[in-house]
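U., I forgot to send this yesterday:
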Amino acid sequence: MDKAGLVKAVETTTLGDESPNAILLEVTWNGHEFLNAAKDATIWEKAKATLFKTSTSITFDLLVEWLKAEARQKLGLL
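Result:
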């Protein structure tokens, strides 16, 4: 999530850890935008039914843009 720009975090993984560890410092503007776009359960379910069931891979950026477009449509802004 840090590398995707959704949060700022400090990696705390040590050599003996079984998985990566980090301390969350803050949620970024992009992280808040994603959460706001994805929090509507109706839109999220539509995203899962539309985007995730296809065999085509989608990028995170495409998912965010799709969620924003759906939110704009739901608000009558298109």
